[in-house]
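subagent[fold] <- orchestrator: predict structure for attached chain, return tokens only, no commentary.
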Amino acid sequence: MANLKDIRDRIKSIRNIQQVTKAMKMVAAAKLRRAQERMEQARPYEERLSQVIHSLLPDVDRELLPLLDVREVKRVCMVLVTSDRGLAGSFNSSIIRRAEDEITAFGREATDLICIGRRGRDYFRKRDYNVVSDYADFWNELSFTHAMEFGEDVIEMFVSGKVDEVHVIFNWFKSVGTQEIHVERLLPLVYEGEEQTLSERLYEPSKDELVRSLIPRHMNVEMWKYLLESYASEQAARMVAMDNATENAGELIHDLRLEFNKLRQAAITKEVLEIISGAEALRVQ
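subagent[fold] -> orchestrator:
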């Protein structure tokens, strides 16, 4: 059974941890606010650009650009977006499990991995998955340049014929308390309902020139979206996890204080009884 000193030391230790988790929650909240602003600014642009390309593709020859080439799928590339740090609840573990399911469904030997974030890279490298490229230690300085760099790597793999499809697995920010895992096909560009007849529109310059100009930009914007959504989701998950940890520490301190008070009261009662017993023994003598 623990003595008073042990319980007092445990309370002190837990209180120190509670201060750390509270500080981490505040830092994550500040980062989330900035990340959410950037994400919400990028969403309308990405959605509108996707709509424009969607309206162009039905009337464009797919041989116009290598990025439009639909091939028999023999090998795929999975782009996995995780974080560099932990302490974010199930943020990383959930997306890693989903990635494993996707890889197993297609075939481990026929899947190449591009890992964005240290957590995903370390996990899959330790298990001898085919990690062909990885990026880490950039989240604090995240910029559109990173999206362009990662996009070039992905495009090169597809255009060179190393892979026939590219899928991206990332966390989509729904709310502070909810992040959803999304799996999207990035390449080749194929939209549902592409064959449908659309209303006649006039384009200046021509559709072919627009496609040549917009699709490379679209690739960069899509990669930028994945990074922003994942970063905002990471900060939200970390803020919630640290808030829960702070509350749990408070509850544990409360329980330990109750135990401490009970033991102290028992010790005081024991001492009082010993004093009374001694006094009675002297009085009898």
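orchestrator: received. Logging for downstream: The chain is about 60% helix and 15% strand. The CA atoms of residues 14 and 252 lie 8 Å apart.
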